[in-house]
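User: Could you write out the 3D structure of this protein bound to iron/sulfur cluster? I've included everything you need below.
Assistant: Certainly. Input first, then the structure.
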Amino acid sequence: MTGSPVNRSTRSPTSAPGGRAGIARQGEAVALRLASLYPDSRCSLEFCSPFQLLVATILSAQCTDKRVNMVTPDLFRRWPTPLLLAAARQEELEEVIRSTGFFRAKARNILGCCGALVACHGGEVPGTVAELVALPGVGRKTANVVLGVGFGVAEGVVVDTHVGRISRRLGLTRRTDAVGAERDLVRVVPREHWIVFSHRLIDHGRAVCLARRPRCATCGLADLCQKKGLESRRSPGSGRGHGKPAASRVQSGPGRKKQSGR
Ligand code: SF4
């Protein structure tokens, strides 16, 4: 394992029946069920190279992949390489990416990131977590996306708002911060599932395990789910009337160094 391995020594905060072995079985069962429910899940960002994926992932912080995909063709047509993008005028870049939100911070991060790629890595995207998180605007989650989706290297689990929320409901973690949730997930989800696990949970979060109104009555994970944070149901089995879910967003803004991007 290269880069900065997730600290596995921290005690799991979960209290699933059967203790640590129980939660590991739960993690494997969830991963296998997700594989059968969402066999075709994949990253929905469009890219042609690790460089494009890195920039697209920075842009995806607090923004939909669909919106990012509308912006990146023009961006990469104007600036097709890290060298050219690093030399872009910030104001021009801001205009191109404006619709993705937080465009000033994202432009700063992209320019800084491309400058570092050119200065430190010969214009190539590095292949370790340690090198990636040292780039401006790149946090652990962005690094995991680039390594997993761009290079096929499983160094961690990408935790976005869907992954964090559903993992807590399932009882795989109690942590509301992305780093803590990832630390728990890599302990309980088999490594061969790490890369696609996030894409599957994201699809599940968009279609079934919605933030405010999870559709538990029709959920393919219902028999595995502890429904943590969903206190009350006014209409049992309808998927409506749940109490408010536990803490929601695990993403941080793109202005922060350790943003969570996707
Ligand atoms: S049973 Fe409900 S809370 Fe649990 S994963 Fe399914 S939709 Fe989400």
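Residues 50-151 form a domain with the Endonuclease III; domain 1 fold (CATH 1.10.340.30).
User: Perfect, thank you.
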